[in-house]
Design a protein that fits this description.
221 residues; alpha+beta; Muramoyl-pentapeptide Carboxypeptidase, domain 1; five-stranded mixed sheet; 5 helices; 24% strand
């Protein structure tokens, strides 16, 4: 009996030590800064974690490209951090904590455009499905608040319109649309003529299966 108890204590101590070592390793990893151009298993793990939270990165591939930069900027906006697209310690900690926006729409399909935090949120059945980085209208050319519906789109590619050059726009109010822009066209602040900008890759995703459809509600707040 005495010998068995001693064995149990030894195993418990070893398990505790292993757990402590794992926790230290995690903290050390989360302090590593990842930035555009970074590659490897840490980037892949970050991409998978972002995807699990709904932040769209495209296909996780271990390369910190434009899609990952957009997703990181989106989580920074939701967490109230500096919007630089670089996954530093504070940003990685927010991702690890599972920071994500809450849906205002409680049922059905909807697109929420959060003007304060500058993100587009796709909601289905009251649950956040996808979060995208966006840049909406400036103070001089604001994005109109209200509740609308996707009523038409232009899926053939680029279109020149009164509000600018738009990639595959989905219109929700007159000439206002969610549309793609070239890389670099989505800063951390409102910069558009009133539309909601997303990346061209994200816009292709929104045109795909399960994306935005005519009749989907759009809530701008």
């Amino acid at each position: 009996m005495t010998r068995k108890a001693a064995t149990t204590r030894t195993v418990t101590k070893k398990t505790s030590s292993t757990t402590s070592t794992t926790a230290v390793a995690r903290r050390s990893t989360s302090r590593t800064t990842l930035a555009p151009g970074s590659k490897g298993p840490q980037v892949l793990a970050l991409q998978k974690r972002l995807s699990s939270l709904g932040y769209w990165v495209g296909t996780p591939n271990g390369h910190y490209g434009h899609g990952t930069t957009q997703a990181v900027m989106a989580v920074q906006k939701v967490a109230g951090l500096d919007r630089d697209g670089v996954a530093g310690p504070a940003t990685r900690a927010a991702v690890e904590r599972g920071v994500r926006p809450a849906a205002r729409t409680k049922s059905g399909r909807a697109v929420e455009i959060d003007l304060r935090r500058q993100v587009v949120v796709i909601v289905d059945g009251g649950r956040v499905r996808t979060v995208l980085n966006t840049s909406t209208g400036t103070a001089k050319t604001p994005t109109p608040k209200g509740t609308y519906r996707i009523h038409r789109g232009y899926g053939a590619g680029w279109r020149t319109a009164p509000l600018g050059k738009l990639y595959r726009p989905k219109y929700f109010h007159r000439g206002y649309a969610i549309h793609g822009v070239n890389d670099g066209g989505i800063p951390g602040v409102p910069a558009s003529h009133g539309c909601a900008r997303v990346s061209t890759a994200a816009m292709d995703m929104l045109w795909g299966r399960g994306g935005l459809r005519n009749g989907d509600k759009v809530l701008v707040y």
